[in-house]
Design a protein that fits this description.
Number of helices: 8
CATH architecture of the largest domain: Sandwich
Shape: globular
Order of helices and strands: EEEEEEEEEEHHHHHHHH
Distance between the termini: 31 Å
Strand content: 15-25%
Structural class: alpha+beta
Largest sheet: 6 strands, antiparallel
Number of domains: 2
Oligomer: single chain
CATH class of the largest domain: Mainly Beta
Number of strands: 10
CATH topology of the largest domain: Jelly Rolls
């Protein structure tokens, strides 16, 4: 059961998802976005790939993800419940912003678990209301949440890379996505066969190799198109590593729901 409250256009969305049936492997949110994200796991277990590494989450854990960071959740047993909040920087206290790195990406502090859950439920309840002050009240609760997390910071990093060369491969792709890189060339770089590399890459990140590479390229293309309205689409395609501008446009429209030309108007 998925409940969605708020509006992304207004910079705030609250989701609660409860899956009480085991329907096999479940993958969510292979994406990045312009909003910050707080993910709270109520029950179940999941692997969360964030930026370059995967993390094992247990009930009560929080993932805090800055805007623009690629991330992806993966559940082997799909029985779980979670809360998810996407929000603009307005909902982060100005005094907390410089300290945000202290509590990203994974936060675990069982001592304040009940207090955190109470505030999350207050945010959920207020998000379902209407009225002139509704947005301000939600903002107040969000500020309380961040103050609590910072005040009780408890460093926790349960990254579980089974293959460090996959972590190295992800770092390489993030720096060299615009080059003529391929599954074969990456496998050769780490002295493994392409089939093995592909399987391990998927296992570690939750993404297929080409899927992840295209995501990096399209993310950069979106930035270039919005930053410079004079640069041609074919030039952007070449700059981010696509050899075929038509293929680039098809992939771009599939991800963003609009053409590279039209993204500039949004």
């Amino acid at each position: 059961m998925l409940q969605v409250l708020g509006d992304a256009k207004k910079g705030f969305v609250f989701e609660r998802d409860i899956r009480d049936e085991d329907v096999g492997e479940t993958v969510y949110g292979r994406h990045y976005h312009d909003l910050f994200e707080i993910y709270y796991l109520e029950s179940g277990r999941c692997t969360y790939f964030i930026d370059k590494r995967s993390y094992e989450l247990m009930p009560g854990d929080i993932a805090i993800i800055p805007a623009g960071i690629i991330h992806n959740t993966h559940y082997v047993n799909s029985r779980h419940s979670r809360m998810l909040i996407n929000f603009s920087s307005r909902f982060i206290p100005s005094s907390v912003l410089p300290q945000l790195k202290k509590i990203t990406y994974i936060y675990r502090n069982r001592e304040i678990h009940d207090d955190i859950l109470k505030i999350l439920n207050q945010i959920k309840e207020e998000s379902s209301q209407s009225g002139e002050m509704q947005g301000d009240i939600v903002e107040c609760y969000m500020h309380m949440l961040f103050f609590m997390l910072i005040k009780n910071e408890n460093f926790y990093d349960n990254s579980h890379a089974q293959n460090e060369y996959i972590v190295s491969a992800v770092k390489f792709l993030q720096k060299n996505y615009q080059t003529d890189v391929s599954l074969k060339s990456m496998a050769e770089m780490f002295s493994v066969c392409p089939e093995h590399f592909s399987r391990e890459f998927k296992k570690e990140t939750g993404f297929g190799f080409c899927e992840y590479l295209n995501l990096l390229r399209l993310k950069k293309a979106e930035q270039l198109l919005k930053q410079n309205d004079k640069i041609r689409v074919s030039e952007v395609s070449e700059m981010v590593g696509f050899n075929d501008s038509n293929y680039f446009s098809l992939k771009f429209k599939k991800m963003y729901g609009t053409s590279p030309k039209n993204i500039r108007a949004k």
